[in-house]
Amino acid sequence: MRGEWWRTAAIYQVYPRSFADGNGDGVGDLLGLRGRLPYLARLGVDALWITPWYRSPMVDGGYDVADHRDVDPLFGTLGEAEELIGEAHALGMRVLLDIVPNHCSDRHPWFQEALAAGPGSPARERFWFRGGDRPPNDWPSNFGGPAWSPTGDGEWYLHLYAPEQPDLNWNHPDVRDDFERTLRFWFDRGADGFRIDVAPALVKAEGLPDLAGYPGYLPWKDQEGVHDLYRSWRAIADSYPGDRVFAGEIWLPDPARLARYLRPGELHTAFNFAMLTCPWEADALRAVIDTTLATHEPVGAPPTWVLSNHDVPRPVTRYGRDGAAFDSADYFARSHGTPYDEGLGLRRARAAALLVAALPGSVYVYQGEELGLPEVEDLPADALRDPMWARSGGTVKGRDGCRVPLPWSGTRPPFGFGVGRPWLPQPPGWASLTAEAQSRDPSSTLALYRAALRLRRGLTGGLTWLPAPRGVLAFARGDRFACVVNLSREPVSPPPYDGVLLASGPLDGGLLPPDTAAWLRLGGRG
Ligand code: GLC
Whose CA is nearest to atom 4 of ligand 1? Predict the structure, then answer.
């Protein structure tokens, strides 16, 4: 495996509950994932990022962690996790885990102890408990409603997410020590790094001031003290052999603030959410690319390119609605269930895949993206599991639609996901989208991803924009490679080229049709 592999890696996000079910209970698990590792190696990814597999009551899909140093029985055992890491390594893939430091589960022994110990007890200092007859400030929960819940004994506790996810107090030495132990625990077991959940939220503004009138960005985000924490984490990662890395989940509107997390001695990479939230428009995408490159370069960190994850509607559906970029939870209220053009969305999603895979840096693929899966927006209300649904009083359907179990094979649900009834229902019409069906079809989205991930390994050098008509993105990497993406409404002539390496759709008499991308071999510039 290459040195500093993370600078150019293609990283595949596994949401284990929905990836593959090995034991037949309808829920994806480590057994299922282990059985599919050859598929991932064949896809051509360099690393996996596996979302939380720890002990959890699963109120928020495992982001409510009750024990970070054990595997939930729903997924398997710690021994299986160790075997899985070894098996992935043997196939040439690194493994990133997902660490959740902002909060834990309300079933975590610390929170149980804090509740039992009562107001004023030292056990409560590991969290944010405050007294009073009203919530201590005006902070909202990300899942709707206030960020404070009453304990029933005269106090309130802070939870930026669900009430079952109490926020930890990072000023407390126990919290710091325990997470450092967790890092070492998994590094010792071969983990190659961690994705850090809600990375900028750990440190809260002194005095927990109201949001109304707060002079900075948000009183619970991007506070200066958080950088010290990541410097100490980085020192731990660096003390291990073999390039152990961190990828921060950092949603911040200002890319310059994001880049501060990537300074030498801090995190290695951060997800590029500007790309994921960008509408399908040439000028907007070019601006994101330019800003990303310009803000990462001075800190020496590689950009990452992200089109989807387990929190956002799938690109096929997003891009199939003009002007409906995913920018916030409001998307669900605004766009969910409104008509969209699935054919158009798929064409654009395929073109977007070639765009991001051609850019310098590393690229993420969320499970099912390589199959061109659409968002499932018609899940019945009684099937929905995302806490957003209940917290919004049934107005925001939330994120279950991108978490539907993968279709692997066959013509009917459960499409080879397992033998049991999947925990979220799959659309009956997914037969043509299975990995098996797409493996046989050279024009499938799976075939496109396989080819793109193979070819991108040969790409080197920075990005040079090439002259292009309005609505068209064209850039070179080195002298011999160009990527051209047509976001205009007309077919366009690509720049002079020697051959087409890969295209997201057929060229038409040498012209690149709308919503299509091509990778071209250039003749060389002497
Ligand atoms: C992150 C995760 C999301 C989770 C939240 C709380 O944003 O990606 O799935 O709900 O953090 O942990």
Answer: 63
